[in-house]
Write a structure and sequence with these properties.
Order of helices and strands: EEEEEEEEEEHEHEEHE
Structural class: mainly beta
Strand order of the largest sheet: 5-6-7-10-9-8
Largest sheet: 6 strands, antiparallel, barrel
Number of helices: 3
Strand content: 25-35%
Radius of gyration: 20 Å
Mean pLDDT: 93
Length: about 260
């Protein structure tokens, strides 16, 4: 696919500037677009009606990762910045994003050895190199405990199109249990207890995995989407879920992954 095919203009009036709760809606009252693979037709509904489009015995695999306050106040020398934690490589290195304190993209180069000091917590990140060919991601070595620092001084990663500063609970899903996602696994956000109740009444089963999502603000820089690098994200699949997936497939039932 050509990268240019993904370019489009989105009118500011249709930006998701506030969570649905701020507009007097429940999470499950957001709109749902249902596309038929069989005949290519589309229909509109609310997420509350999800169970109508599933079958008894279908298995939904959901992500139980919990969003952390991954945006940390920091400085490079005397220059204030935001350090966005993205991915823990489990060897003392992290993939991070650096932004200006205003939230604008950081446009300057960060030479090897650049020190990024977190303000208010004992954490320092030392730049090793740009992460592959991502425009905004850097590979750093950390000294200190990034998760502890995040919960000490961090806030949710926010983007300029969102009006206001919403607390961390607005960035959590119903399934959130395991700390680790830099940004909310947003596909799970519309699920509510009553949606789960309707699914169970329909005979739909639920299984969980853990996938810690990284930042989502990177750009495509190659003419073909397939040429663009990807970055790792930590995951764990419990044996119970493996067994549930295997049983569903052996019985000819659908396994549906709720994406991040």
């Amino acid at each position: 696919m050509k990268t240019e095919a993904l370019a489009f203009d989105l009118p500011q009036a249709v930006y998701a500037q506030v969570p649905p709760e701020a507009r007097g809606l429940e999470r499950d009252q957001v709109r749902l677009l249902v596309s038929s693979r069989r005949d290519g037709t589309h229909c509109h509904d609310s997420f509350l009606g999800l169970a109508k489009y599933l079958k008894p015995g279908d298995l939904l695999v959901v992500n139980n990762s919990r969003t952390i306050p991954a945006s940390l106040p920091a400085r490079i020398g005397r220059f204030p910045v935001r350090l966005h934690l993205s991915t823990d490589l489990n060897d003392g290195r992290w993939i991070v994003e650096v932004r200006e304190a205003s939230g604008a993209p950081w446009e300057e180069d960060l030479p090897f050895g650049t020190a990024i000091e977190v303000v208010g917590a004992p954490l320092q990140a030392t730049v090793l190199e740009k992460y592959r060919d991502f425009a905004r991601l850097w590979l750093v070595e950390v000294a200190g405990d990034p998760l502890a620092a995040a919960f000490q001084v961090g806030s949710p990663i926010r983007y300029p199109y969102v009006a206001g500063e919403w607390p961390l609970r607005f960035y959590q899903t119903l399934f959130a249990k395991v700390d680790g996602s830099a940004e909310m696994p947003s596909a799970g956000r519309p699920f509510t207890p009553r949606v789960l109740r309707f699914l169970r009444q329909k005979g739909v089963e639920i299984a969980e995995v853990t996938l810690h999502t990284g930042v989502s603000s990177h750009e495509l820089v190659h003419p073909n989407v397939e040429e663009h690098a990807t970055y790792p994200e930590w995951y764990s699949i419990p044996e119970k879920t493996v067994q549930a997936i295997r049983a569903a497939k052996e019985a000819g039932r659908r396994v549906i992954a709720v994406g991040t």
